[in-house]
Amino acid sequence: MTGKVKVVISNDQSEIRIPTGVRMLVRRCCTAVLVQEEFDGAAEVSVTFVDDEEIHKLNRQFRNIDRATDVLSFPLGENGVYDINHDTGAKMLGDIVISIPHAIDQADRYGHSLQREIGFLTVHSMLHLLGYDHVNGGMESVRMREKEETVLTKLGLKRNSSYYMDDENV
Fold first, then answer.
1. How far apart are CA 121 and CA 71, in angstroms?
2. Looking at domain 5-158, which CATH architecture does it have?
3. Can you give the pLDDT of all 170 residues of the chain as single tens digits?
4. Which of 89, 111, 107, 78 is nearest to 16 (CA)?
């Protein structure tokens, strides 16, 4: 990867205090995805932390899905073509919106840390901003999952349990 990565992080929820180090983790996740994908040039990404009510509104407004979700991605580019910030020359990749309450619930459900969950949601969403999709399942979904786990492992956020519950944990 050549170029700087600017990650603008906003906390638009007041329900939960964002743990120390999460902002740096989000920046590291964004950069790691761009390095893995050999992204060329400078890039800008916006990441916003919200509550379930706000992400529910966004999900309904932009996806016609009437429920809260964990993360939403709003890509600004298509087929590798991005809007350019004329002040910096950076490619504007888009916006990531993470529900902090949802992330906490999922971290508990999957038996890993909140940092690992926020890292996963950030990496997952960054791949969406770069054009990856998993909605139709199949090999594209598998390829996306492999890329997520590769980045998270490199960042020291390796999965410590599987995504299914075995009988002992029920």
1. 6
2. 3-Layer(aba) Sandwich (3.40)
3. 567 999 999 999 999 999 989 999 999 999 999 999 999 999 999 999 999 999 999 999 999 999 999 999 999 988 888 999 999 999 999 999 999 999 999 999 999 999 999 999 999 999 999 998 877 777 888 889 999 999 999 999 876 544 433 333 33
4. 107
The tokens describing 15, both together, are 């329900």
The residue among 51, 154, 161 whose CA lies nearest residue 105 is 51
Q: Write down the domain spans for the chain.
A: 5-158
- The tokens for 51 are 């509550």
Kindly report whether the global pTM for this prediction surpasses the value 0.85. Answer: yes
List, in sequence order, every residue forming a beta bridge with 37; answer none if it has no partner. none
Closest to 123 in 3D by CA, of 36, 44, 29, 48: 29
The residue type of 122 is: T
Beta strand 43-50 with 5-11: parallel, antiparallel or unpaired? parallel
Decide if 66 contacts 80 (C-beta within 8 A). Answer: no
Nearest-angstrom CA–CA distance, 128 and 63: 15
